[in-house]
Amino acid sequence: MIKVVITGSNGLLGQTLVKLLLQEKEKYQVFGFSKGKNRSGREDFNYISIDLTNEIKLKETLTEIQPSFIINTAAITQVDVCEEHKEACDLLNITVVKWLAEISKSLNVHLIHLSTDFVFDGEKGNYKETDKVNPLSYYGLSKVKSEEMVVNSKIKYTILRTILVYGQVFDMSRTNIVLWVKDMLEKGQEITVVNDQYRAPTYVEDLALACKIAMDKKAVGIYHIASNTVLSVFEIAQQVAEVFNLDKKFMKPILSTTLNQKALRPPKTGFNLSKTNKELGFYPKSFKEDIQRFKESLM
Ligand SMILES: NC(=O)c1ccc[n+]([C@@H]2O[C@H](COP(=O)([O-])OP(=O)(O)OC[C@H]3O[C@@H](n4cnc5c(N)ncnc54)[C@H](OP(=O)(O)O)[C@@H]3O)[C@@H](O)[C@H]2O)c1
User: Fold this and answer.
1) How far away, in angstroms, is 259 Cα from ligand 1 center?
2) Per-residue pLDDT tens for 187-233?
3) What's the fold here for domain 2-167+202-228+271-285?
4) Does ligand 1 have an atom closer than 6 angstroms to the CB of 10?
5) Is there an atom of ligand 1 within 6 Å of 74 CB?
């Protein structure tokens, strides 16, 4: 049995990964770490209620389990929260990663760490893994620092950078772009959506699969995971409306400057997927195909 610890097992990716790995119960023994109660709706894995910012408890619990892999999905992912609460962001997004890397070294664990397109400034777009990072936000900076920590720690590691993740899990603490557009248009409520930021949205089922492939291949290095389609966020919302047969008249395009957000966002990201195609054998599809699959999963 391969022992896998998933941190942030109550989150969007965390719950999806738990579900995916439990499809092969004879192969993986799954341990989910999150704060508070288990919100995955499943009881058939080892759920451990733990605050990851408690270094002693974290290291003791991992030493007891002796996992082969840790998949670190936990993070403060809200960009403006990081901008306003820098100490909390540092603690979870950087210091906890440092502790995970230290314990991975002493227990010979392969650490799979999640990062983001926000490590880039968004001037160029279509980013390769080797492109120069230049974060615009504190969240992006925290992820750059966490990546450096992992890369320099002399452990077996995979860093998966991803973009604008969407999907649905059992009990969600927050929404995402596709669900939000769908829910608002279904209620006939007007929405404003930025048309000057470009992203390649990522279906959470694909991201979870990429984590599993990275684990099975013991891939070492940085990999980019997203759909193969770069669209403005407004175009993303339009495609959601088309696939779910919802009325586009409730959507209005706006400029991001009108939102007065605390943190700056990169104008254009999207990933070059060549390395992921070649080394992981993973070929992400178009956004349209992905949301079609997402729609079918909801039926
Ligand atoms: N979502 C995106 O669009 C996106 C884009 C690029 C990169 N990423 C990266 O992908 C990864 C997964 O994202 P996600 O959307 O699945 O995140 P998420 O839904 O916000 O899940 C993160 C989980 O971590 C848990 N957590 C937070 N603080 C904790 C603590 N101190 N101790 C234990 N657990 C704690 C949260 O618990 P609660 O639910 O109780 O708060 C939450 O369940 C993150 O590293 C993120 O930075 C995400």
Assistant:
1) 24
2) 999 999 999 999 999 999 999 999 999 999 999 999 999 999 999 99
3) Rossmann fold (3.40.50)
4) yes
5) yes
